[in-house]
Amino acid sequence: MAFESLTRSERKEIHEGALRLLEEVGLLLPASSPLAARLRSAGLRIGDDSRILLPRSAVEAALERAPRVVRLGARDARRTVVLDGRRTFVATDGCGTSTLDLDSGERRRSVLGDVAASARLSDALDGIDVYWMMISAQDVPAGERVAREYLTAIMNTTKHVQMIDMARREEAETLIAMAREMKDTGLFEDAPVSTLISVVSPLRLDPGGTEAALAFAAAGLPVVACSMPLSSVTAPATAPGMVLLAHAEIIGFTTIIQTLHPGAPVIYTSFPTFANAKTGAANYADPRSPWVAGAATQMGRSLNLPCFTNPHVTSLILGTDLVCGGGLLETSTLLSYEQLVIDNETISGMFRAAAPQPLNPDTLALDVIREVGPGGHYLAQRHTARHIREFSLPRFDETAPVTGPGSSPGDEANPRERARREARRILESHR
Asked: Mind listing the pLDDT tens digit for each residue in 400-419?
């Protein structure tokens, strides 16, 4: 299946624009950050206004050092995620602050129990490969939160756990110590944890988050170098401009990591999003979103880096390494257990939509068409009996039939209730 968001010349133009931005405008680092001295010692130029100005030569050298293959370890080694460009893996969505209670249906603050339950539910869903920390445990003191969230998640899933936006180096060092212990005891063969750290659009580094990322890089743990620009708010109001800004932020961040810790595993992560023109909130339904996801995938792959972006058929066709697979509502702030079940089915359908269809004598079915002839039907054909097994039968949309034990009147029109029952069943049975 042939599709491109960007031609080769357009990819080159975006990359050249990003290089000019980093060399002429740079990335802002607060003057109070102790990181500035380390970067100067490494040969990077920091202006009087605290901007890190990255020359083309530094960026290109850094990108050459970054490994193409990144391994995300899992407690069950069979579930290790290898980002090598050969297939696309799926992560949950990440970092909500509230939960839609599975029993009452009411919105409430998220607690550590939700980390455990969402990790266990994700563990049972075949379409999910990585548990990206879905919510923040609001019942845990801030100083303990990251460590306890990670420990709770890893106790409830055999898949890889990815943290998001740590704010302090000390938090990273705690996770590094935990990861080292788990590897030393043989619980993991590959990296037990990775972390997503975002550049603050436009073109600003978070000093605490950057220090956390550098601690992970020094320990050889994967850093998910992320940009999340919002068009017309923290990025230009055009799709190409937003992609260019994200690209500049990611390769600038990667340059800093590779300059201080050559060869550290980095994942190119681009989540450009359009704003709602009336409210300024993120608008994931903008019809240009699939084009942007495809463009982000192409820019990451053009650098020979593993890439992570939004889940669209376009990004799957173009071969992104990792997509986030949902489970959160209200612009990724509200955990919904039933939505995770629904999204698991939806993204499975997206993979089927993006997959090339084999063309051979059996799939062309010329002999079958000849045998049925004009005005016939295909229901009695053995060819139909074989291939109809490949048809998708949705369970959680309005067209799904509801029959059998446990069904009740009105279920046919209530896919969310069916998904809620499935989530409850999994949480009661899966360990």
From this structure: 554 555 555 555 558 888 89
Strand blocks (E) in 170-284: 193-199, 223-227, 266-270
Given a cut of 70, the residues of the chain with pLDDT beneath it are 1-2, 398-413
Tokens of 63: 């990108």
Cα torsion 118, 119, 125, 126 to 10°: value is 150
Within 8 A by CB and 6+ apart from 272, the residues are 227, 228, 229, 231, 235, 239, 242, 243, 245, 246, 292, 296
Distance between CA atoms of residues 210 and 263, nearest Å: 17
Please answer whether residues 226 and 201 qualify as being in contact, where contact means their C-beta atoms are separated by less than 8 angstroms: no
Q: Nearest Cα to 215, choosing from 251, 167, 249?
A: 167
Describe the strand order of the beta sheet including 334-336 as a list of residue ranges. 107-109, 98-100, 334-336, 328-329
Sign (positive or negative) of CA dihedral 201, 202, 205, 208: negative
129 membership: H or E segment, kind and range: none
Q: What is the pLDDT of residues 189-218, one digit of tens each?
A: 999 999 999 999 999 999 999 999 999 999
Output the six-digit token pair for 85: 């460009």
Residue 190: name the closest of 302, 94, 67, 307 by CA: 67
Q: Give the separation between CA 351 and CA 269, rounded to whole angstroms.
A: 20
- Strand residue runs (E) in 117-205: 130-132, 160-164, 193-199
DSSP 138: T
Cβ(224)–Cβ(308) under 8 Å? yes
Please answer whether residues 200 and 22 qualify as being in contact, where contact means their C-beta atoms are separated by less than 8 angstroms. Answer: no
